[in-house]
Amino acid sequence: MNGLVTRLKANARDYGIVFTAIALVIILSTTTTTFFTQQNLVNLFDQMVVVGILACAVTIAMIAGVIDLSMSAIAAVSAIIGATAMNAFGIGPGVVVAILVGVALGAFNGLAVTYGKVNAFIATLATGMMFRGFAVVITGGQIVAINNPAIADLSKRGPILNITWASWVLLLVVLITGIMLWRSVYGRTLYAVGGNPAAARISGISVGWAQTSAFMISGGLSAIAGVVLASRSVSAQPSMGTGLEFTAIAAAVIGGVSFAGGHGAIWRAILGVFLLQMIANGFNLLGLPTTFQQVVQGLLILVAVAVDQLIRRRKS
Amino acid sequence: MNDEFLRIDNITKSYGGNTVLHGVSLTFRTGQVYGILGENGAGKSTLIKIISGLESADSGTITVDAETVHFGAPRDALARGISVITQEQTLVLDRSVAENVMLGHLDRKFGFVSERATRKRFDELRDRVGFTGLKAGTPVRSLSIATRQQVEILRAIAHGSRLIIMDEPTAILSSVETEQLLALIRRLAATGIVILLISHFLEDVLAVANEVTVLRDGTVTFSGPAEGQTTQTLTRHMVGRFVDADHREPAPVPADAAVRLDVRGITRSDGIGPVSLSVRAGEIVGMAGLIGSGRTEVARAIFGVDHSIAGEVWLDGERLKLSTPREAIRRGMAMVTENRKEDGLSLIQSIRENATIIVRRKYSRAGLRTVGKEKAAVTVATKLTEVKASSIEQPVWTLSGGNQQKVLFTRWTMKQPGVLIVDEPTRGVDVGAKAQIHQLIRDLAAQGIAVLVISSEIEEVMGLSHRLLVMRTGRVVNEFRWGEADRQQVIEAAFGGVPAPAGEGETL
User: Do A186 and B367 touch (CB under 8 A)?
Assistant: First the structure.
């Protein structure tokens, strides 16, 4: 019993974010007639997909104690190369190529950070610019259209649960990465590395490899997000998704994934994405001026981090 | 000089429903040194926080210079001449000594900092206090921990402090540095400054304090002159029972015990080494020496944390080919590092997560963890190491220093090592936990583990070790069997008072 109370207190943060989400759902359900309808919820979910996948990537990187600011650039490059491959070999091989490109670019990030000893923030800021420029070079600044319109089916609803195929992609990503962090030995390694890299090293863990692999997963997931984004317009182009990594990082932080590393979970990041998306959705449904939307979202990030700090300070 | 400077009356403080101070009253007079003792959780830190304005009391009064005061923030206490020097140093590492000392009191000329005037005032202050070794322009980063401490003290004096609280100042110092600090405290007191010394090192307190206050569970169990007190009497006040100083002779090592760890001429690029040593199954070998003598560095080289440029490490008769922690662990070596917060524990994670990080693969199937088995194993292991916590899921930062240290031991014992290196096993740990950790080390050796113990606390290694190696300037200069040398001889060897034996660097 005593242990339960301690755990409840130690995890006060979890409940804060859950309660906020539930409160918003209740508020929006009671003040609007349109929020709690199947159509709206299906749309809401569909809109979460791209940022949601990126938020999973952010969570993995942040738990391993690194950060990846090149995610949207990786998404663009992978989608462009993937789209080209789709046109040549079909959709399936194109997706595989896109993911491989994402993993490779992630590996490049990882090597720059772990072997090049460049701070992850700076390194991926730089590689992000490089990748983005790379995308412009490949395309000559042009849009790459995908010849097979079947790719747009990702936005169509599937047979089960009535949600879109893209939403299924997100669900699958959440499930796999979630179990990986929650239960796998590899996940434990990432937490250990992010929690205290020096201690991890003395415990026989290869910190460099753990962080590099986290970047590779992050790159692969960015590529998947890029493909979903490309499916929306049946094309890929160099400027696609610009700045999305910041939304994803914000979502993870709101959910309670620690910027300092070693602490967090996939469900937290997804809850963060859900909150951000619900605010946008609420503004639309309530007919509030959307100009204030970003102000509220920004404020939410500040409050989330401030509350986190406050709880931590009281603990210590 | 027996004027009262600060008095606290009936101070009570509770957090939640937990009362940590029950009506504590104390008086501090100018020019006196006060030792404040107590186990972790006895209320020392809270008392200090209240005196220094970091926390406010629920009830009770604070009187400074016969005037009742209310401290809302540390700056209020600072304005009254009260400053704290904590274990975590708060210096700006990349700025000079003078800038650090004069921070907040820099001389200005036309709105710019006048370097010359600042240095002049620094020099005056330094000479007045007598820290002649400090140079104004030296960047703080290049100084040793002991010297940095002097900079902090000087800063407190520059701020006009009349009462300086020192929280575990000797914990990070070697024996000689400790002696120097104690001498310094006496000098400061002679100038009329009040010193509050909070320490787990009873000898240090007894050596310097005029009066001693012992706290237990938030109440004062003893307060009076230090004269006539011994570590035994003070310990009894602290724990409420008599704790014998731990100086039992270690259980003998069987004559046929095999050599488990054999280090041959290990040498580092920073001039430390060559060092050779060997530890047999069931044997505890201690390493003493001043800070900077290379004890920790040798241990880190043996374990493969740092590179060595020459030498070999043999484990159970086989040479270690790779020199990385991963390889060392694979071959049955374990190392409890010197600084548990820096390279030991991941504080935000739970006891279970910290304890199983090395054996994470053992409790898994197909890459997925079998948490049930893991929990069962950790529950058993933490019982053996006597970790006190309400649950193994408790985050490590919520534990006391002693319990954190035991979690670190749990991690390595779960791996069942053949060789265990322990660096500063009881730093920042209270008396009760210390005895338990010492017993744990003995028990592990009794199981046939070869143990290498490093400590700045000479009594600790003297009491634990079958053989004690003394290091100086990167070499092993002396070796004593248990009971062969007294504290003085060990200190002399560490400091260079005894000529090094021929063939320096080689052990017997």
Answer: yes
User: How many Cβ atoms sit within 10 Å of the Cβ of residue B390?
Assistant: 14
Q: Specify the CATH number of the domain B259-495.
A: 3.40.50.300
Q: How many residues are there in chain A?
A: 316
ipTM of the complex, rounded to two decimals: 0.83
Chain segment B397-415, per-residue pLDDT in tens: 888 888 999 999 999 999 9
Structure tokens at B341: 């917060």
**Residue ranges per domain, chain A?**
18-25+34-315
| Helix (H), strand (E), coil (C) string for B377-423 | HHHHHHHHCCCCCCCCCCEHHHCCHHHHHHHHHHHHHCCCCCEEEEE
Residue whose tokens read 């209320």: B43
* Residues A74 and A219: beta-carbon distance below 8 Å: yes
Phi, psi (deg, nearest 5) at residue B214: -110, 130
Q: For residue B324, list chain A residues with Cβ-Cβ distance below 8 A.
A: 204
Asked if the Cβ–Cβ distance from A203 to B398 is below 8 Å, we say no
How far apart are alpha carbons B227 and B231 in whole angstroms?
12
pLDDT digits (tens, 9 = 90+) for B145-189: 888 888 998 999 888 899 999 988 887 787 888 888 899 899 999
* Cα of B129 to nearest chain A Cα, Å: 35
- With beta carbons less than 8 A apart as the criterion, state whether B6 and B62 touch: yes
Question: What φ, ψ does residue B364 adopt, rounded to 5°?
Answer: -155, 160
User: What is the DSSP pairing of strand B475-481 with strand B18-29?
Assistant: unpaired
Strands B284-289, B467-472: pairing kind: parallel
Q: Is A257 on the interface with B (CB under 8 A)?
A: no
The CB density around residue B144, as the number of other CB atoms within 10 Å, is 14
Class of domain B1-81+196-242: alpha beta
Largest CA distance in chain B: 79
Indicate the CATH number for domain A18-25+34-315: 1.10.3470
Domain span(s) for CATH 3.40.50.300 in chain B: 1-81+196-242, 259-495
- Nearest residue on chain A to B335, alpha-carbon basis: A202
What is the predicted pLDDT for the residue at B199? Answer: 84
